[in-house]
């Protein structure tokens, strides 16, 4: 796996702002108030709400079908609850950090930018827990958003902050290091990462190219930068 740890000078060159918390809600939220995007603790696991639909039962009673995705693993779960069922909503925020490389233990390392209150603080996530496109195309100095879950102070996991769901830019600029032929395709290997993409015949060594990172987990050539 590609390894290169950036210096804090990289962070200094990229002035980034830290977004406000997505949710700092109270512990309890009734089933009818659960909204897509919030993070719930269900059966001692953390889930992001995908959707909440109401189904009528009888004249006055209602139940809610809540679709969930487990934070980190992406496993799907559905729960059905009455209107008065109380879920535990956890404090969560999106934080913008800078990728600084993979260490010798294959952990992906992210640091807070220089201007941030936690400047220099490092967050480490197991590299093999990241989607393949991220393992291949994360580049040092790249700004990324991470989901930060802060367990309640009175919980057993109060001292275990959780970091997950890395979101990369939809496109990024890389430098062509090598060009090889793979069948009928001209493949460019990149200086800043382990990834490679098919490029057109006009692209030469050392050129800057744009790579499009797609939601379906693939990456493609986006032309000269």
From TrEMBL:
Protein origin, superkingdom: Eukaryota
MF annotations from Gene Ontology: translation elongation factor activity
Record InterPro entries: Rib_uL2_dom2, Transl_elong_fac_P/YeiP, Transl_elong_KOW-like, Translation_prot_SH3-like_sf
GO cellular component: cytoplasm
Residue ranges occupied by any Translation elongation factor KOW-like domain in the UniProt entry: 33-81
The protein's name in its UniProt record: Translation elongation factor KOW-like domain-containing protein
Higher taxonomy: Eukaryota, Discoba, Euglenozoa, Kinetoplastea, Metakinetoplastina
């Amino acid at each position: 796996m590609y390894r290169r740890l950036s210096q804090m000078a990289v962070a200094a060159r990229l002035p980034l702002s830290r977004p406000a918390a997505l949710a700092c809600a109270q512990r309890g939220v009734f089933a009818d108030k659960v909204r897509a995007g919030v993070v719930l603790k269900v059966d001692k696991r953390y889930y992001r709400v995908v959707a909440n639909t109401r189904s009528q039962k009888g004249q006055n009673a209602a139940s809610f079908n809540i679709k969930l995705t487990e934070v980190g693993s992406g496993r799907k779960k559905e729960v059905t609850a009455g209107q008065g069922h109380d879920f535990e909503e956890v404090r969560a925020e999106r934080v913008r950090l800078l990728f600084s490389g993979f260490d010798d233990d294959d952990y992906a390392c992210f640091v807070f930018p220089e201007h941030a209150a936690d400047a220099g603080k490092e967050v480490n996530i197991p590299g093999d827990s990241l989607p393949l496109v991220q393992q291949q195309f994360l580049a040092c100095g790249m700004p990324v958003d991470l989901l930060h879950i802060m367990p309640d102070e009175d919980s057993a996991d109060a001292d275990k902050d959780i970091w997950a769901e890395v979101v990369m830019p939809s496109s990024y600029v890389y430098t062509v290091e090598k060009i090889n032929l793979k069948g009928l395709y001209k493949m460019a290997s990149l200086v800043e990462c382990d990834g490679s993409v098919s490029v057109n015949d006009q692209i030469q060594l050392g050129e800057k190219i744009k790579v499009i990172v797609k939601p379906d987990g693939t990456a493609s050539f986006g032309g000269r930068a």
